[in-house]
Amino acid sequence: MKLQVIGDPVLHSKSPVIHGAMLGALGLDVSYTPQVVRRGELPDYLRWARENGVTGFNATMPHKEDLLPLLDWLDGDAALCGAVNTVCLRGGKWIGFNTDGGGAQAALEGAGLWPARNVALLGAGGAAKAVAFRLAQAGAERVWVCNRTAERAEALCGQYRCQALAPAGFDPATLRRLAAQSQLLVNCTSLGMAGCGRQFEDFSFLDALPQGAGVFDLIYHPAQTELLAQAERRGLPTLNGLPMLVNQAVLALEHFLDRPLDRKAMAEAAASALRGEEA
Ligand code: NAP
């Protein structure tokens, strides 16, 4: 069995370290390698993968949406989001999955930040969509999708016709008003990410959050964004994006191997390998 992660760029991806650690912990002799696949090269890649014994791969930018028409079947979350991050070859058919939302929920549960009744979710890009849909499915009464570009938040909420999702603005007054009613705030924008060069201009929405409300930033590089540092200073429980990254990989590996795994043991093996890499 051969597994891969494809994208462009992809050589910076932490997936080989995470999957390598989990496969090692399972004692499986399965390779997991990064492969640069440029936009437009997906049909050639799928042919090559089939001929070369690749039975599963993760997909990152720019392929998460471009893969859809090339696959034979889409699993629930992938069909709902219109994006895949995990693809498996089963019975000669390519099956697409999306484990980002499940990974986010598992990370929140692991940190004791889920369930939450109302969620202020910042951003309306690909990651926001996967997380918003999942939290709505998982029982949030209200998920406010707060985005700079209003049409994008409206499109996201319109795509998944669920009463829990509501589009909202990204101005400081709106963020403060919605934070005051939320038990969880999730940053799904790229603000504060290393290399992004942009930062929140105003953190006053953190003052409006009720005591004990969680602050989850999907970003894992840096490990502590300014948002999380500011939240911590206010005594709020925080969570960075690393546990989500690890948990979405655990769910992906379950799809690759087509069997349930000891998720806690897998997540520990992956987290420990990542710590080792940093040291
Ligand atoms: P994306 O599709 O490009 O979406 C980016 C979002 O950020 C959009 O909502 C965009 O708003 C917003 N944004 C960008 N610059 C902004 C600014 N100056 N002011 C306000 N909003 C701004 O990206 P993505 O794939 O969803 O990824 C988003 C973040 O999640 C990234 O930092 C990524 O690393 C992280 N992520 C983490 C994991 C994990 O496993 N932990 C998984 C996936 C993604 P507009 O719509 O107005 O442009």
Secondary structure blueprint with pairings:
Elements: E1 2-7, H1 15-25, E2 31-36, H2 42-51, E3 54-59, E4 73-74, H3 76-81, E5 86-90, E6 93-97, H4 100-110, E7 118-122, H5 126-137, E8 142-146, H6 150-159, E9 165-168, H7 172-179, E10 184-187, H8 205-208, E11 214-217, H9 226-233, E12 238-239, H10 242-257, H11 263-278
Parallel strand pairs: 1-2, 1-3, 4-6, 7-8, 7-10, 8-9, 10-11, 11-12
Antiparallel strand pairs: 3-5, 5-6
The structure holds NADP nicotinamide-adenine-dinucleotide phosphate (NAP).
NADP nicotinamide-adenine-dinucleotide phosphate binds next to helix 5 and helix 10.
Topology as H/E string? EHEHEEHEEHEHEHEHEHEHEHH
- How far apart the termini lie comes to 31 Å
Any ligands, ions or cofactors bound here, and which?
NADP nicotinamide-adenine-dinucleotide phosphate
Question: What does the radius of gyration come to?
Answer: 19 Å
**Percent helix among the residues?**
40-55%
